[in-house]
Amino acid sequence: GLIPSRNYSVTVRAFTVGAGPAASLSVVAGAITPSPPQHITVSDVTSISLTVGWMPPIDSNGDVKFYQVHYNNGSNTPVESPEIKDSLTYHLTGLTPYTNYSIYVTATNNANVRSRS
């Protein structure tokens, strides 16, 4: 079986009396959305910052390339963190004191398919 969302290279050559020219192509096996990041936590809360933590998706359907934290206080455009590649936490700063925020985490796999927590 092929692994979902993994890149594969295929070379085809036709034979009758002699070998024909080879044709190569690259394909991605069934790009499938990863399951969402798990167990989202919030810690180290101050009036202007907090830390968001999570666990990897149960089924990433390929390698997770990066995570992103998205947050919004309900009155302006949602903010998206930079790509988080080597951590399962992200520290949000510059928050407005005494304001409620909506927060979610996304996982993007190697086929550029994203899931949301």
Describe the structure.
The strands form three sheets. The chain has a four-stranded antiparallel sheet with strand order 6-5-8-9, with no helix packed on it. It has a three-stranded antiparallel sheet with strand order 3-4-7, with no helix packed on it. Strands 1-2 form a two-stranded antiparallel sheet. It is mainly beta. The model has no long low-confidence stretch (mean pLDDT 85). It has strands spanning 7-15, 19-28, 38-43, 50-55, 64-72, 79-80, 89-92, 102-109, 114-116. Strand 5 (64-72) and strand 6 form a beta hairpin. The relative contact order is 0.27. It contains no helices and nine strands.
SSE map:
Layout: E1 7-15, E2 19-28, E3 38-43, E4 50-55, E5 64-72, E6 79-80, E7 89-92, E8 102-109, E9 114-116
Antiparallel strand pairs: 1-2, 3-4, 4-7, 5-6, 5-8, 8-9
Distance between the termini: 28 Å
Oligomer: single chain
Q: What Rg, in angstroms, do the CA atoms define?
A: 21 Å
Give the overall form: elongated
Q: Largest beta sheet, briefly?
A: 4 strands, antiparallel
Strand order of the largest sheet: 6-5-8-9
The low-confidence parts are none
Counting DSSP E segments of at least 2 residues, the number of strands comes to 9
Strand % is over 45%
Which range best describes the helical content: under 10%, 10-25%, 25-40%, 40-55%, 55-70% or over 70%?
under 10%
Number of helices: 0
Task: Quickly give the structural class.
Answer: mainly beta
Along the chain, the helix and strand elements come as: EEEEEEEEE
Indicate the mean pLDDT: 85
